[in-house]
Amino acid sequence: MRASPATSANAPRVSALMELLGERWVLTLATNARDAVDQAPYPTPLFYASIDLTRWIARPAPALLFASAPRSTHGRHIGAGPTLAGAALYLETERVEELRGVQLRGVILRADQLAAPIADALRSTYLARHPVAAPLLARQKNRPADQSAHALYALAITWAKITDNRVRFGHHEILQFPDPWAEFDDLDGEPPDEASNNF
Question: Measured on CA atoms in the order 179, 15, 169, 42, is the torsion positive or negative?
């Protein structure tokens, strides 16, 4: 199965991915300890919100936002990032012919590593989807993010395998995206004038 790079020619496939991600709100995240003896993946269910990053970079760049405790097992695995991880989410059904879902690989960055306006925009997107998390993400003065009770993270998707048995049993499509985080290093948080939504 050949992977498709996320170009404008594949805009319908990217839109299908974003639509699927928008239909659910819980993912299973898989992380592992990079420097520990135990390298076994560690799965964690997390509430998420989907976002495209094209307002800052002019190409498809889907991402998932989640809030978690930096001192949790997966929080320690991630650190401030960038950190490789995997994830999966599926629309539950007992009818095999209706099964849909997506397996993901990507790179996680803690949102406080980004320019403040970008981090604020990501926080607003997450809270619009999960307003109950507002107290968890309230800024705590004089406390670094890695010592706060909760922090916001962004998983930039670099590989996605979409399953849709409604097309036919075992139907898959694979999309690939470049890691976008290096492109954020020089951004001040304002979307570039030439940026356009490629979804």
Answer: positive
